[in-house]
Amino acid sequence: MTHPRPQLTRATWTDLCGEWQFASDDAEAGLDEHWHSTGAAFDRVITVPYPPESAASGIGDTGYHPVVWYRRTFGVDPSGHRVLLHFGAVDHRASVWVNGQLVATHEGGHTPFSADITAALRDGDEQVLVVRAEDRDDPYQARGKQDWRAEPHDIWYHRTTGIWQPVWLELVPPVWIDSVRWTPKPFEGLVELEAAVGGVPAGHRLDVRLRLDDEVLAEQSAVVRGDRARLTIHLPLAGNRQELHRLLWSPERPVLIDADLELSGATATDVVHSYLGLREVGVREGRFTLNDAPYFPRMVLAQGYWPQSHLAASDDELLREAQLVKDLGFTGVRVHQKVEDPRFLHHCDRIGLLVWGEMPSAYAFSPASAERISREWTEVVRRDVSHPCVVAWVPINESWGVDHLATDPAQRAFTTALYHLTKALDPTRPVISNDGWEHTVSDIYGLHDYTPTAAGLLSRYGDADRVESTLAGSGPAGRRLLLEGRVPGVPVMLSEYGGLSFTPQAGEEWHGYATLADADALLKRYDELTSALLESPGVAGFCYTQLTDTLQETNGLLTAERQPKLPVEEVRRINTRPAAAIPVEEIADEYRRAKRRASGE
Fold it and tell me: How many CB atoms are closer than 10 A to CB 418?
């Protein structure tokens, strides 16, 4: 079983998923009636972490229940340790009690939170844990593809209420490693580490060892002063370009470097395991770059939704999802309108997939929504910043939640501010201010174009001049593509295209962008559309819509049950063709230039 927080693991932890008591609170009486301490109202059983709207939860109630409660008991023997309680995600506003004491509150349905519950524990074998989750149909909170109507419509799906990612306990010493942040700088031959520390350190020392399997790459120690330690770890091997190449992470060679950390004091030591990928991403001269060389991302859009469990998924399902993307010949995945489970990112790190990290949208703008999105997006970036698979950030999609971006100065300022906030939090990755259209300031111009024919795509993107003409006007959705002018050198990617579906039968629900009669016709059209983008010297990458059918949105390469509609090897053959935007000789030139740079010439 993959640890629910794969980049900071301890040898022992306690999984609190499984059966919990459950109750809906439509009358919102639970606080007044002290459900957190009485336990009298819990009349149903739910399987955590599956949301109550899903069949996998054992509840399967897709109705609107704005407040729900959870309760379970657990046993723990602290034996001189602190006890930490972790939640992967609770949608949307959570309050947590242990033995009747409030130990945590959190707002934001897509990000983790933790609590030191040691002081709330009581003598005996049984501790009582209660969670209240509040998730209203509020257009000013981030909800992504969760529908606000009673039944899913158009491109929106059933809502997700309450706990939908793992819950677990950890025992830690009185002073412990609370988080790690890795910043690789491969062409400087170093890695930067920032480790946050919980408790009150007093003369504690942090020892770090980096390994490639059993080969020790570097060791370093630092005395901890304050609540965090910052180390610059030099990698002697990286000074040799041939050895550096052996260490670099990419989809083709997803090399991971293991990290062993020990925080030691006078009486106790905290030992954790982490990992990192040594890689560098950026943009240059109209190209996306990976490890200082041009790279053409071939991505697929994934909704991260399962028929039986909705936004939640088991570790096996998350691994299978990543492997299917890889098997189809894609080098990356854009997880759409969802902050995906860290275990999925871990699998992408391990098997080699690029990921665009995207914030679920609100659907109305106000000062309150701006504050909520900014706060939760900060937590998203903080959570995922060390994953090598994450290569770009997307805080807004298609002007959702900022629908008057072109004319409202406040909405435009907010969109631009999110770009700069993201660059302040993480200056090492490209940021797309508003993927699809109406870009304010972006490092990549991600465009959405569901033109159903190759001729249509070529008319807009067939060469560099046509791309520039397209950027200067309005996109297929009738919105301006760039609000603040063309910045030279910014790459252009088709970050949504395709959306092909089979022609629906009489009475079938359907949502897609073009329909084909059968698998042969669908494969032929997929080939034509994708080849048009691969043959364009003006397009720097693509993302096909989409990986799987999702409820009424039946435009997946796979069914909702993850069964291929087309021969996998044929899709892979199409996806792995050379891209005209990066000629083979240019790759060789970039490699030679990077080699000279690494050797200091």
Answer: 25
- 390-442 pLDDT, tens per residue? 999 999 999 999 999 999 999 999 999 999 999 999 999 999 999 999 999 99
pLDDT 10s digits, 115-145? 999 999 999 889 999 999 999 999 999 999 9
> Other C-beta atoms within 10 Å of 235: how many?
21
Residues contacting residue 321 through CB under 8 Å, at least 6 positions apart: 302, 304, 313, 344, 347, 547, 562
pTM (2 d.p.): 0.95
DSSP string, 518-566: SHHHHHHHHHHHHHHHHT-TT---EEEE-SB-BTTB---SB-TTS-BSS
Q: Which residues pair with 179 in a beta bridge?
A: 196
**Contact at 8 Å (CB) between 310 and 332?**
no
Please say whether the dihedral angle defined by the alpha carbons of residues 507, 337, 133 and 123, taken in this order, is positive or negative. Answer: positive
What is d(CA 319, CA 6) in angstroms, rounded to the nearest whole number? 13
The three-point CA angle 526-546-160 to 5° equals 165
CA–CA distance, 267 with 525 (Å, rounded to integer)? 66
Nearest partner of 206 among 192, 219, 189, judged by Cα: 219
The first and second tokens of residue 420, run together, are 């700069």
Strand partners, 288: 283, 295
Please classify residue 500 by burial: count the beta carbons closer than 10 Å to its beta carbon, then call 0-12 exposed, 13-18 middle and 19+ buried.
buried
Instruction: Specify whether the backbone of 479 is left (phi greater than 0), alpha (psi in -120 to 50) or beta.
Output: beta
- One-letter amino acid at 337 equals Q
How many other CB atoms are found less than 10 A from the CB of residue 102? 14
What is the spatial distance between Cα 436 and Cα 483, in angstroms, rounded to a whole number?
12
pLDDT by residue (tens digit) across 251-281? 999 999 999 999 999 888 999 999 999 999 9
Q: Would you say 537 and 463 are in contact if contact means Cβ atoms under 8 Å apart?
A: yes
Strand order in the sheet with 190-198: 176-185, 190-198, 228-234
Measure the N-to-C terminal CA separation of the chain; round to a whole number of Å: 47
Degrees (nearest 5) of the Cα angle 463, 469, 473? 145
Residue bearing tokens 């993959």: 2
